[in-house]
Amino acid sequence: MKTNPVRLVDEFMRLVEIDSPTYGERQMADYVMERMRALGLFVLEDDAGDKIGGTTGNIYGLMRGDDSIPPLMFCAHLDTVEPSRGKRAVLAPNGRITSAGDTVLGADDLTAVAAILEALTVLSEGRLRHGPIEVLFTVAEEVYCRGSRVFDFSKVLSEQAYVLDLAGPVGTAAYAAPSIVTFTVTVRGRAAHAGFEPQRGVHAIAAAAEAITRMKLGFVDEETTVNIGLIEGGKATNIVPETCIVRGEVRSLRHDKAMQRAQYAVREFERAAKAVGAEVESEITIAATAYETPQDHPVVTRFEQACRSIKLTTSLIKTFGGSDNNEPALNNITGLVVANAMFRCHSTKEYTTVEELTRAAELTLALMTADA
User: Fold this and answer.
1) Are 218 and 224 in contact (CB under 8 A)?
2) Active-site annotation, residues
């Protein structure tokens, strides 16, 4: 049996119309729970919403299957980036699906949600042999995967997972992803009137600027990036600023490098502050931990087999993006991040196509039945 492209596109366009901003995924969660229950899955919602200040928890579903086949988990996230209120999908005659232009489309990650629901729908008809299928629809993925970070993976049956959350043509999969380490530095100087007695002040912004000029930003080596993303400070143009807050992040395919670079950044601020008599407070947070899935692992070979079965060219890559695969990797669940027909994500130019969306659903179904 194959997927139904018309039903699939209708499902995707219906999903797009449901507002699901980060921390506000309640309506989307209710919809996917209703759909999975109608397909015969056991469904539950965890308490992630209470823990992270959102309107809903992560949604878990289990479709029973042949217990002689190892279970598999499939994951996608329910939240979409802004601007996302009032999304509407527009299907062009050439099969390209975009938003109306004033919002994101939400293909990130609703193409994945639609593909998973379509594959489950085909399986529910009962003509294809498969093992137990676990589905995890997470919340707050777009803010450093806060939903999956509080999910209890000890309750998951599967030892392998496919996370549908990668831009690019279907057939691409990421087997390695970085640690993401954020840092916040607060430089505290001393305020003074900038016109009458500037010499009495300690310029917090100047100290922070000095530290930033010493730092190498962007790619610092082939597997590590450093960025300063936010700077705020000062109260008025005629006051020497006593406070400057700087926020940045480090990404590296090696966790030790990410930590070292974040610590180095903090030390640069401390040196610059000390030179002018300022003080520094700092905080380093691990938002994601790097992993690399061996390319000869069954989760990879199954992916390659599934792609061949539907005549897809495979491409295995490393990515500098975090995803909900980082958390399962910390919990002894080996996974791949799979491309799911989304392009130009995080912009109002985001799009998918009927052809690629159909491929994503066909690949999801092929993965669900590959060991049968």
Assistant:
1) no
2) 79, 141
